[in-house]
Structures are given as C-alpha cells and as structure tokens.
Amino acid sequence: MNLDFSRKDLKDDVAYEEAPFLVDDEKGSEISVGHVRGPPSSARRRFPSSLNIVLFVLIVLSNGAWWISINSRSAQESESSCIRPQLVWSPGTAAIEYERVVLNRSIESENVFAGKRTKAMDEAWAELIKPMALKISKEELERLGETSISFRDGSGFLAEMAVFHELHCVKHLREHLTLDFCNMTEYELEFERGHVDHCLEYFREAAMCRGDPTLAFFTWDDGIPKSKRDTTNECVKWDKLRAFAESRMVDVSDYSVLNRDG
C-alpha cells in the first residue's frame, strides 16, 4: 500500500487547505512536516476564515446594542422620567412626569393642610381640589369607550381625575372629625356615614391599585422599633399635573350648563 502523502496527492484535500500549523520562511519556501506542506502564511492572513468574520460581526453588533441601551437609559434618567405601563389611557398621562421627593411621615407634621381646622386650612383644601371637574372632548371619550354627561354648548363631556377625588375624600374625612353630630338629623347622619365609608373604600382600592413599593425604615425609640420620619419616594411632579387639570377645569355648580339628555 502506497502511503506517500505528497503535495501532489493532497493538493485537492481539505487537510492541505486547512493546515494552520504550517508556516513559510521569508523567501516564500514551504516547510514540510512529514511531506505535508501548507499554503503561504500571507494567503492565510488575506483570507481569514468565515467563522472569524461571523464572530467579529457579532461582537461589533452586540457592543453597539449595549452602547445604545446604556445611552438611552442615561437619557431617560437625565429627564427625570420613568416608564410605567399604560393599560388605561387618559389625556392627563401626557402631563405625568416623575421625580424623587422626600416625604415627611411624622405624626407631628404640621402644614396648612393638617392640624387644627382653621379658615386658612379650608381655603387651602378648596384650592387644592379646585380642578376636580374636567372637560374632555368627544374624541377622547370615544377613545376610552365610555359615556358621560355632555355640555349643552357641545364643547365636550364631564369627567374627573381620580387623584382629585382621592384628595376630596381626605378633605371630607378631616371635616368629618369636626362635625357636630348632636345637631344632625338621622337622615344627615346616615348620609354622612355612607359618605365616609365611600371615602375609606376609595382609599383602600387606590392603595391596592398603585401598590407603592417604596420602603420605609426603622430606628429604636426607647426600646421600641419606630419607623423613620422621612422616606424618599417616586412622585408625580404635582405642579405639572395640576397645570394640566386647570387647563381643563370647568365650573359645574350650575347644572344648567349640562345637557340633561346625556
């Protein structure tokens, strides 16, 4: 049996074309190993394998994708915005922007909205919930797939934003604590109980709907764990959202502006 593996016999063989351990000297002469000689090294440098090319392209693409992702995330953070699911549309969503806010949770906290009821408190609360009634367009109402009461002049439909209803309930519960129940009729008492129960239930649903994951922390106070007074929260920029509500605000104290036919 002839076992002569000469170049003539192997020139069409894959082993000849893919022999990475074969090198040439500077004069171009071929060095053989057991009579097997490889192609010039310059040829191998000019024609890299397909696998190397594919790997190089994949590395470039993956690094490019990573770079774009990092820059996109940095841009979002610089704008103090965050992405939230939008399963239910609202025209007010366009006014939503978030920021980090330190909230004071102390029992001793005092501001114009808390403490003993005063004229200044009543005025502050009235101003806070003033944009409760809003006007939305026919197109916006149709987009939501809902129905509502229309305005007689055909300018739109009546709506309210949930956050202002929640604030209304806080206001009502505060007023409830100062009511003179002795001078109320049984009908008034029953109505008040129903209103307060509604507000408490509104808060329960709102808290569960949002599911705020913000953490509070504790410290020792005379041997008893006590939650710290301040927490850093992710909050809506209130001034921006309120400005949107004020731009849609309507006065419906006079029901004659509303269309009673729907």
From TrEMBL:
Superkingdom to which the source organism belongs: Eukaryota
InterPro entries named in the record: UstYa-like (IPR021765)
Alphabetized UniProt keyword annotations: Membrane, Transmembrane, Transmembrane helix
Pfam families named among the record's database cross-references: UstYa
Entry's transmembrane regions: 51-70
GO biological process, one term: mycotoxin biosynthetic process
Family assignment from sequence similarity: Belongs to the ustYa family.
Protein name: Uncharacterized protein
Organism: Lentithecium fluviatile CBS 122367
